[in-house]
Amino acid sequence: YTTKKPESGTLDLGCKIQIIEMPSIKPKADNREVLSIASTADLILIVISSIDELRVLGDELKNFPKKILVINKKDLLNEKEIKILMNMKNSIAVSAKNNEGIDKLNK
Fold first, then answer.
1. How many CB atoms within 10 Å of residue 74?
2. Which of 5, 22, 56, 94 is the most exposed place for a label (fewest CB within 10 A)?
3. For residues 5 and 67, what is the distance between their CA atoms, to the nearest angstrom?
4. Angstrom distance (rounded) from CA 72 to CA 24
């Protein structure tokens, strides 16, 4: 399953938070709609599974100062990749498979 168009919903945590699931940013594609919507957000949660996905995002990450970078599938990364990713500001490595990092993400 992949998100093809923005899908919105609301999460009530004592105050209502709007959540918009966005399609992936793809290399050599017209990503203007995704980037335009993302640029208006107060916070962006970016979920990636590999360093290659970071390369696709490239300089776009610099345009979003209020972001949390979630590295999913930590169990598939080698130590060097984990070290590179964890040195990035506001990043969290998780493995849903091994239940690693989920508590930190919840905070």
1. 21
2. 5
3. 21
4. 15
Beta strands in the chain (DSSP E): 7-12, 16-21, 44-48, 67-71, 91-93
Mapped onto helix, strand or coil, the DSSP state of residue 18 is strand
> What amino acid occupies position 58?
G
Give the amino acid at 95. S
User: What CA dihedral angle connects 24, 31, 58 and 95, to 10 degrees?
Assistant: -10
On whether the pTM is more than 0.85, the answer is no
Q: For residue range 71-97, what is the model confidence (pLDDT) as tens digits? A: 788 888 888 887 887 787 778 888 888
Distance CA 71, CA 96 (A): 11
